[in-house]
Amino acid sequence: MMNGSLEAVYFNGESSSSKSVTLSIDSDTRELRLHSDGEIPVIWNLDHLIVDRYGNILEIRNKQWDGALIRVDDAYSSKEIYQLLKRKGRIDLHTRLLDLGILKIVGVAFLLLGLFVGAYFYLLPPLAERAAMLLPESVDDEMGDLFESEVLGHYKIDTKKSALLQEFVSKIEFNNSKPLKVVVVQSNEVNAFALPNGTVVVFSEIIDNMKGYEELAALLAHEVSHVNNRHSIKMICRNLAGYLTVSLLFSDVNGVVAVIAENAQQLHTLSYSRAKEQEADEQGIGILFQNNINPHGAVMLFEQLERESNVNIPKIISSHPLTKDRKKHMLEIISERKFKVTHNVNLKSLFKQLKRH
Amino acid sequence: MATNFNESQQAYRLEFHGKGSEYFAIMIVNWLLIVFTFGLYYPWARAKQLRYIYGQTSLNQERFHFSGTGKEMFRGFIMVVLFYIAVLCVYFAIMVGFESPLWAILFIYLAIFSVIPFAIHGSLRYRLSRTTYRGIRFGYRGDRMELTKMYFKDLFLTVITLGIYGAWFQVNIRRYTHENMRFGEVEFSNDAKGFDYFVMNLKGYLLSIITLGIYIFWWQRDMFEFYINHMKLSKGDQKINYKSTATGGGFFKLQIVNILIVAFTFGFGIAWVEMRNQKFICDNILMDGDIDLAALSQTEQEYKDATGEDAADFLDIDVM
Q1: Which CATH class is domain A6-98?
Q2: Which residue of A203, A248, B129, B167 could cross-link A187, Cys pair, CB 3.0 to 4.6 Å?
Q3: Does one domain contain both B257 and B230?
Q4: Which residues between 212 and 271 in chain A have a beta carbon less than 8 angstroms from any beta carbon of chain B?
C-alpha cells in the first residue's frame, strides 16, 4: 500500500474533458485506484498499464481501455509511480535500457559495433568460405553452366583454335578435379577468365601476343587454379554473407551509413580477390614446375600484361595486384626453387599452330 | 456581435518538445534490440519511434499519443512479407515458366501500384485510429473501393497526359483522405484545387531552373503552405483554420543545417535532423477558430490491423 495521495489528471476516454483525481496503489490486489470527489473510485489493474515518461510527466494508459489516460505532472509523484511500476515489472525492456542513460547505451552500442566489425572482417570471411566448401561441386558446375551461355553469347568462338587449345590442355597435368573445357574467343582485348564449371575462356589477342608455349601454359595454370580452389563460389559466399550482415546491421540507421557500409564492403571484396589472385599465381607456377615447363612463362605473361596496361592503376583500386608486384613475386619463387625444364615438342607445335591460325 | 465572437474564439498552440539526444538514445536502443533479434524487433522499434514523436507533440500543453503496438505492427509486417514473397513467386513463375520477362516486369509494376491505394487506406485507418489526444481517437472513414477507383482513374490520366495530371492526382487523393478524417466529432476537410497546385508547381519548377536551384526553398514553402492552408476542421458551425507561417528563408536554414549535421556526424545526426524537422513543422502551423477541444466525445472505432501501415512503410509512403 502506498502512503499519501498522488495528484493526477484523468481523461476517461469518453469525452475530451479532464478531471482531477488522486491515485493510490494497492500492492496486494495489484490495483491502481483513481479517486475523485463524491464518486466511486475507478480501478485499473496493474497488469494492464502502459506507461510513458516525458521528463517529469508520466502518462499512464490502460491496455483494455484504449482512450483513457492518467497524466501525472508532478516530478516527485511521477518518479514514485514509475519506480513502483518498475518493481512490479510493468516497464518494458526498451524503456529499462533507456534508463541506463545515453552514455552507457552509446558505450554498449560502440562495443557491440566494434565486435561486429571485428567479426565481419576476421570471422565472417573464413566462415563463409567454410560454408562454401560444404556446397557440393555440382553447384559450381550449375553456376558455371548458367553463366557460360550468357557470357559466351557476347563473343565469337573460334572453334579451330579452341580445339587446338583443348589438345594443348590435355598435354599438361593441372591436378584438376573436374574436366576442363577451353574456349578461344575472337577479341582484341587482352583477357582470359575461368568459370566455376571448369570452362576457361581465352581471348585470341592474348595468345597472339605470346612469345612461347610456356606463357600460354602459365596463363592456363593460373586460370585452372581458380577453378581448382573454387574461388568463384567462395567469393560469392563471402560477398553474400557480407552483404546480408551489413544490411541486417544498418537497415534501420540511415542511407548515409548504408552507403559507407556498402563501399567498405566493396573495398573488402577487392582485397579479397587480390589474395585469391596471389593464391592462383602461386599454384599456377607450381603446375609449371610439376610439368617441367619453364616457370619463366609466368614472368613473360606479366611482361605482356605490363606492356598492355600503359595506364597505371593505383594498387588500392585495382582488382589484380599491380602486375609489377606479381611479376616480382614470381621471380622470387623461381629463385628460391630448384627445377628441371624439359623441352616439350608437343606443346611447342600446338602453340605454333595456335599462333598461325 | 464582435464581443460574442471573441468570447467563443479559442487559442491553440502547437508545440514539439522532442530532443535529438533522447531520440538518438531511442534509435540506439532500437538498433541494439534489432541486432539481437536478427531484425524481428523492427515493428516494435517503429512503434517506439512513432510513440516518441507523437508523444512529444502537444496542442495546448496536452500531448498526442500513438497507442499502436509492436505486436500489431508485427502481424502486419508478417502479412506484408508473405505478400511480398507471393509476388516474387508469381514473378519468377512468369519469368521462368512462361519465359516472358516483359510480362513478369509488368506484373511487378502492377502489383506495386495496386498495393499503393491499399497501403494509403490501411495506413490512415490504423495510424489515425491509434492516435489519441485528450483520450479521444482520430479516425479515417474513407472507402477503400472508392479510393482505389479514384487512384487508378487518376493514375491513368496522369500517364496519358505525360504527368501533367499528376498535380490533380495528388490533390484529389489528399482531399479525399482529408475529408474522411475525424477527431471525435470534429471533421477534417480540404478545399485544395488541382489547378492551383499545378500552377504553383509549374512556377516553382521554372523559377528553380532560372535561379539555379535557389528557389527550391521557396517552392518548398509554397508546397507546405498549400498543404496546411487548405486544411480545415469543423464541428457543426464551429471551425478551426490552419495557416502556415513558414518562410523560404526558414526552409533554407533548416535544410542547410540538416545537411551539415548529417555530413559531420557520418549520418548519426539523423536523430537531431528528424527532431528539427518536426519542430519546424509544429512551429510553423498557426491555428485559429472556435472549437473547444475539451468538449469532444469519443466517436471513432478502434482499428488494430496494421497491414496497410506496414505496406506503406515497405513502400516508403508517409501518409501523415
Answers
A1: mainly beta
A2: A203
A3: no
A4: 248-249, 251-257, 260
